[in-house]
What we know:
This is Methanol oxidase. It is a single chain. The chain is of the alpha/beta class. It folds into two domains: about 5-125 and about 240-280, Periplasmic binding protein-like II (D-Maltodextrin-Binding Protein, domain 2, 3-Layer(aba) Sandwich), CATH 3.40.190; about 125-225, Periplasmic binding protein-like II (D-Maltodextrin-Binding Protein, domain 2). It has seven helices and 14 strands. The strands form three sheets. Strands 1, 4, 5, 6, 7, 8, 9, 10, 11 and 12 form a ten-stranded mixed β-sheet that branches. Strands 2-3 form a two-stranded antiparallel ribbon. It is elongated, with a radius of gyration of 19 Å.
Amino acid sequence: MGWGGREANYKAALIITGVAALATLPVHAQNAGLGAAGELVDPDILRVCADPSNMPFSDQSGEGFEDKLAKLVATATGRGSVAYTWFPSITGFVRNTLGANRCDIIMGYPQGDELIQNTNAYYRSSYVLLYEKDGDLRGVETLTDQKLADKRIGVVQGTPPSANMAAAKLMRRAKIYPLMVDTRITPSMAEVMIQDMLSGVIDAAVIWGPMAGYYARKSGAHLAIVPLIREKGGQRMTYRITMGVRPSDQQWKRTLNAFIKDNQAEINKLLLEYGVPLLDEHDQKITQ
């Protein structure tokens, strides 16, 4: 059974809300160069740690946007191929992958977590509110909007928006979706929430943006995807996503930072193809 983080709650909710789901990384020397004794980065193969069933991020089929991004990184850094260590997003993910030197990079990790060393952020996104574009919620941009007062809203248990919904007195009618989901055998909760909304079980849903954008597009329905950037108080809704490396790998981090800087336009294009709601540092939407 995986964390709800198998669906980015692991990557953007559990970690950010302070749930210490993973063991601390081993301490390594900080002054080694790339490929030197203390920096065990493979110079020929991009060794990636990833969840085998976590669309739209990663998947053994190679269809996730992090899988596509890994290929870009491999090419740009002169590595001939990409090799995966697959491990579900559960307790011990970092310890059993990056921390055990079985791989050299986690392709998507929220900025500020202490378990890994973050690169510079390569995208910024937020939790979003989803509802039918032509329905009676048209124009709603915040969880405090009175149009939501009598609506049934779907939210994943324990994620940051649930605190804001509680403050807005929306949890009494909310439908709570489980945090712990094994997406190898059951659908993503984002996909289930959208199906429930289209069938009238719920009126709206609050979902982590990259998942919402991907599954909304997959549904083919006309849905409004509204980044929750106007919330006042409560939990923050926007997060920067980085690549994660070992604390020892300083030169590797610099190499990846240079890749991000030089390829940001191509990275944005890839993310937008998957429907990821991209925000700049001023909360303006990035559309190209």
